[in-house]
Write a structure and sequence with these properties.
single chain; 188 residues; alpha+beta; Ribosomal Protein S8, Chain: A, domain 1; 3-stranded mixed β-sheet; 5 helices; 20% strand
């Protein structure tokens, strides 16, 4: 089901506004040796300690899971009553993730790309966005008209780009943060 809030209607898309090089959306770093894996595990441990400290200060319950997926550490907080750590549309979660990345950077001196999830929010959002990307791709393919989506976070844009690409269409990001959005184009 397509959430109408994710799509915006604009008849004229100016090519000058499009940015084909969306560095934030396509950070490709290869992890191919044990040292890199150990480094990611260390990032996860530092992040988990930081989040655990925040949970203690806020007197919130939650268990912390750590993993490495591809080229990034993933730290997940699971438990009851964690909505206040997600916020509206994941805004609090995004802020917590940035604070956690800063804490890791402070300890390691390396810019962390770790992903933080709370209460399965990102996993649910990923499923919704994959469906949205497929739906928008089908619509653009059917109508032959480009479609501009609402502003999204880098995490959200990356998922849309991947879903559109798997459907055989082209997408690009345009604009500046925090108003950066995906535009889906027909083939040809």
């Amino acid at each position: 089901m397509v959430d109408e809030d994710d799509v915006i209607d604009e008849d004229d898309l100016e090519e000058d506004d499009l940015d084909e090089d969306d560095d934030e959306d396509e950070d490709d770093v290869e992890v191919d040796d044990e040292a890199d894996l150990n480094s990611l595990e260390e990032e996860g441990e530092i992040a988990a300690d930081y989040i655990e400290g925040l949970l203690d200060i806020a007197d919130l319950d939650g268990d912390i899971d750590m993993d490495v997926e591809g080229d990034r550490a993933v730290v997940s907080v699971v438990g009851a009553t964690l909505d206040e750590l997600v916020g509206q549309d994941g805004e609090v979660l995004e802020a917590l993730q940035e604070l956690t990345r800063l804490a890791v950077h402070r300890r390691t001196g390396i810019r962390a790309r770790l992903m933080l999830d709370v209460g399965g929010f990102r996993a649910r959002r990923r499923s919704e966005l994959v469906e949205l990307g497929r739906s928008i791709a089908a619509e653009v393919e059917r109508t032959g008209e480009p479609k501009k989506l609402r502003a999204m976070s880098p995490f959200e844009r990356k998922i849309i780009h991947d879903a559109v690409a798997s459907a055989g269409l082209r997408s690009e990001s345009e604009g500046e943060e925090p108003n950066r959005r995906v535009v889906v184009f027909p083939v040809g």
